[in-house]
């Protein structure tokens, strides 16, 4: 229950941090809310730990006009309380309430959550739903990876070992868009058994664009493109018809929290709830 | 690789300095090096909340911080609240409502309560339970802890008893 020895670096600039990662077995320390438990269990034992908490450029949420940029070191609690971010994306406040507990939300970061890529985690689901663009810095510049190309497997992402996730850009929704999030977990603050999130844009009572994403049912959050397409041009009454059978293609894992069957059976219920709630919010009725 | 580093921090209002290996957890550093044993250690993976401290004003799990990260920080532990003869009002409320039995979880609860009284409305008991959900207690069944916090919230909000 104690971590193995390591060398500790505390860079104060991105350049220094990238230089410190040029090492055979270095790991980034952000909020430490996933990495330190794994180190305490000795599931990971990096030789060098690069603490990026002093990179102050990564700590802000910025309004860029048509988009919001979230620095990788923005804490869960900071995001949930941000008027810039939650004004455009009220779903963030709704989802963050389900992430762990007060003290963990004070420390854990969006960058750490995306890099950790737990299949049931809330940030990866939101970024998948909202088509986030993930900015990753390496020694030869930065690159942008779309949410759908970012997650490879549980705990595996597009970030190379010598790279740092620096920010996430979310395009602001058009007027008339509603959003909703819900999840089933064993206890408040536990990782979700299944989580669902949706955005719905309506015009004259018809759905012009719907997005649906699910967490906890695969190796990473999944977009349900079939359902999204079926809903285009339909009234919100068509939601249940559009999601019928959508869980049949999913192959969720069995684990100590829930069986694959139970996870699959939650999908239509949660998908229906978030799509309907988002449609109501889109119509301006809360 | 086992080189010790110098760590200087403000602990409960006083500047202190000590050495620790980078791998030493802040919880062990506070207890075994700084000899403040009020902070308890239950699980060492962030689940139980017994090790909760305030790190630059905000609650944090000290078992998920390294001692080296405390350098330059302002840290408050349960010892910052009150003493056996001069208890803090949170401690008094816990005593009055029997919000502890063995007391193992209590330091963590007290630190969490000290923060949430400043930051959250806590207008319903559900909200209190949700805000306390990161602290585990194996003795009380939580009911008495919620009652203690309810009284503190009412006192804060000027609600007559
Ligand atoms: C009891 C408990 C309950 C929890 N419940 C939930 C929950 O319900 N939902 C949920 O989503 N999370 C939950 N978490 C996890 C929490 O949200 C973490 O904060 C998050 O998963 C990781 O973020 P971090 O900043 O703490 O990252 P760290 O733990 O510091 O790092 C995690 C991983 O990401 C890498 N990394 C971190 N930052 C970067 C970066 N900028 N660029 C590249 N790599 C990086 C690290 O090297 C490491 O491999 C829980 C944690 C605990 C202890
Ligand atoms: S000892 Fe830190 S949360 Fe349990
Ligand atoms: S009083 Fe014993 S664990 Fe809470």
TrEMBL record, chain A:
Keyword Oxidoreductase part of the UniProt annotation: yes
Designated name of the protein: Xanthine dehydrogenase family protein subunit M
Stored SMART domains: CO_deh_flav_C (SM01092)
Keywords per UniProt: FAD, Flavoprotein, Oxidoreductase
Coiled-coil intervals: none
Species annotation: Pseudohoeflea coraliihabitans
Domain annotation FAD-binding PCMH-type: ranges: 1-175
Classification via Pfam families: CO_deh_flav_C (PF03450), FAD_binding_5 (PF00941)
From TrEMBL, chain B:
Pfam families cross-referenced by the UniProt entry: Fer2 (PF00111), Fer2_2 (PF01799)
Assigned keywords, A-Z: 2Fe-2S, Iron, Iron-sulfur, Metal-binding, Oxidoreductase
Domain of life: Bacteria
Record's keyword annotation contains Metal-binding: yes
UniProt keyword Iron, yes or no: yes
Stretches of the chain forming a coiled coil according to its record: none
Name of this chain's protein: (2Fe-2S)-binding protein
Organism: Pseudohoeflea coraliihabitans
């Amino acid at each position: 229950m104690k971590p193995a020895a390591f060398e500790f670096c505390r860079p104060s600039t991105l350049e220094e941090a990238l230089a410190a990662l040029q090492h055979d077995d270095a790991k980034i320390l952000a909020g430490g809310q996933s990495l330190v438990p794994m180190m305490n269990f000795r599931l990971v034992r990096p030789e060098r730990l690069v603490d990026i908490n002093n990179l102050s450029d990564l700590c802000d949420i910025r309004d860029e006009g048509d988009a919001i940029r979230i620095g990788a070191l923005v804490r869960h609690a900071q995001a949930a309380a941000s008027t810039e971010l939650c004004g455009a994306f009220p779903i963030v406040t709704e989802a963050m309430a389900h992430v762990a507990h007060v003290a963990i939300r004070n420390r854990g970061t969006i960058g750490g959550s995306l890099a950790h890529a737990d299949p049931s985690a809330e940030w990866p689901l939101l970024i998948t739903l909202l088509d986030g663009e993930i900015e990753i810095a390496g020694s030869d510049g930065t690159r942008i990876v779309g949410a759908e190309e970012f997650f490879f497997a549980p705990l595996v992402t597009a970030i190379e070992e010598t790279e740092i996730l620096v920010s996430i850009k979310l395009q602001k929704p058009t007027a008339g868009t509603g959003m909703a999030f819900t999840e089933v977990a064993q206890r408040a603050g536990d990782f979700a058994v299944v989580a669902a999130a949706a955005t719905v844009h309506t015009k004259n009572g018809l759905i012009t664009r719907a997005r649906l994403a699910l967490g906890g049912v695969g190796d990473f959050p999944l977009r349900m493109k079939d359902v999204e397409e079926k809903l285009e041009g339909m009234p919100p009454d068509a939601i249940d018809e559009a999601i019928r059978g959508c869980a049949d293609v999913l192959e969720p894992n069995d684990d100590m929290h829930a069986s694959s069957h139970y996870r699959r059976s939650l999908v239509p219920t949660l998908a229906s709830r978030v799509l309907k709630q988002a449609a109501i919010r889109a119509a301006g009725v809360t | 690789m086992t080189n010790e580093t110098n760590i200087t921090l403000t602990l409960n209002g006083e500047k202190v300095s000590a050495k620790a290996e980078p791998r030493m957890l802040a919880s062990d550093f506070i207890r075994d090096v700084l000899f403040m044993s009020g902070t308890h250690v239950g699980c060492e993976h962030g689940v139980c909340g017994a090790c909760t401290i305030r790190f630059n004003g905000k609650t944090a799990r000290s078992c998920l911080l390294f001692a080296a990260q405390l350098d330059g920080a302002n840290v408050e532990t349960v010892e910052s609240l009150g003493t056996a003869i001069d208890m803090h009002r949170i401690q008094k409320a816990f005593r009055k409502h029997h919000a502890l039995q063995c007391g193992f979880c209590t330091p963590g609860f007290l630190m969490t309560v000290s923060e949430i009284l400043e930051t959250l409305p806590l207008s319903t008991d559900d909200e209190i339970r949700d805000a306390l959900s990161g602290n585990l207690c194996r003795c009380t069944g939580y009911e008495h802890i919620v009652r203690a916090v309810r009284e503190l919230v009412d006192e804060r909000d000027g609600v007559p008893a």
